[in-house]
Amino acid sequence: GRVLHVVGTRPNFVKAAPVVAALRTAGPDQFLVHTGQHYDERLSHIFFRELGLPEPDTDLGVGSGSHARQTADLLVALEAELTARAPALVMVYGDVNSTLAASLVAAKLGIPVAHVEAGLRSFDMSMPEEVNRRLVDQLSELLFATSPEAVGHLAREGIAADRVHFVGNPMIDTLLTHLDRFDPAGARAAHGLPERYGVVTLHRPANVDDPEAAAVAVRTLTEAAAHLDLTVPLHPRGRAALQAAGLADAPGVHLLEPLGYVEFMGLVRGAAAVITDSGGVQEETTVLGVPCLTLRTTTERPVTVTHGTNRLVGHAELVPALDKVLDGGGVAPVEGPPLWDGRAGARIARVITEWLERHG
Ligand code: UD1
Ligand code: UDP
């Protein structure tokens, strides 16, 4: 039985790396297909090198476009690829357009799908990711959940319990594997940051696509930067809008290109606070014990609030919340979410291996 992994974006690479590694030990033949949804060196290749992912067997080179255009291109390219490779199982990760397209193509070809990071729900269908998550879970044969809430969501959506496996969080496997390489002092020095600084990432459409939303975000961050120097590795989405709104000119704001994983996590590890709208960063800060202020109204990762350092804040609440964090309040040491122990990849590999023995 051959397993074919489909990845396409930065967060996919971080989640797939430990699964590919664990399955290598377990033995089935593996193919790694890169859709090319992310293609810049700094959003793509750097992760393959740093995380020890094998070179993709195929890069479909799909690239950017509107949702319809990108998804359509993904569907066509993936149909040809999956037909030619004829795997026993397709593995998909997270909630991006590549994840949805791969699941849909596999389902129509009659190839079972395994979804890593199943069951997350923000209950906000205006997020493209929420649409993707719901559909992918309906199409999946095996569903790997990172939290007990996720298992509950899947049960309520009528997904049979024997297809759902609570395995922990592969993104945290990657973090724990590379922890010794995260060097806050080195990363801080490389970017000329003071000893006390914050890290900001923003790329959600709701925060950066519309010029008015971008202007609100820039006003909030400008005010925050008067309290704490902020380093901002900017995703290409929103770079233009945030710059047009004057982000580069705000005193205390240090704009950067997107960073590689090791350098980024070095900065996060040493940060006094992180301000973000990312999914993965909410999880990583929880495990590193770094206060995280999430500039969103919902989260699909509530376990980072109940068992971690995360807090959802509106734009008006950000600066007071930041002040509180800087005064040393608000973040007690946390135990962390259950099973976020670096063994998720191994648990997934065991389920897959057993499944292949029966079906593959
Ligand atoms: C995608 C995911 C999002 C995820 C994010 C992780 C979807 C719907 N969204 O968002 O859930 O949080 O990845 O980073 O799948 N671009 C480049 N270089 C690249 C790739 C993109 O410059 O290598 C630019 C293009 O202008 C493109 C824009 O970024 O139009 C958006 O890229 P896209 O892949 O459509 O979505 P992301 O915003 O990256
Ligand atoms: N990341 C990185 N460099 C950066 C920003 C992010 O290496 O400059 C990593 C980090 O591990 C993060 C992951 O990429 O968790 C995915 O980030 P992103 O916010 O793009 O995606 P999301 O989790 O929101 O889908």
Automatic annotation (TrEMBL):
Q: What keywords appear on the UniProt entry?
A: Isomerase
| Keyword Isomerase in annotation | yes
The chain positions of domain UDP-N-acetylglucosamine 2-epimerase read 29-352
Q: Does the keyword Isomerase apply?
A: yes
> Which EC number(s) does the record attach to this protein?
5.1.3.14
Looking at its record, which EC class is this enzyme? isomerase
Q: Which GO terms describe its molecular function?
A: UDP-N-acetylglucosamine 2-epimerase activity
Q: Which InterPro entries match?
A: UDP_GlcNAc_Epimerase_2_dom, WecB-like
What protein family is recorded? Answer: Belongs to the UDP-N-acetylglucosamine 2-epimerase family.
Which NCBIfam families is this protein grouped with?
A: wecB (TIGR00236)
Its name, as the record gives it, is UDP-N-acetylglucosamine 2-epimerase (Non-hydrolyzing)
- Species source reads Streptomyces himalayensis subsp. aureolus
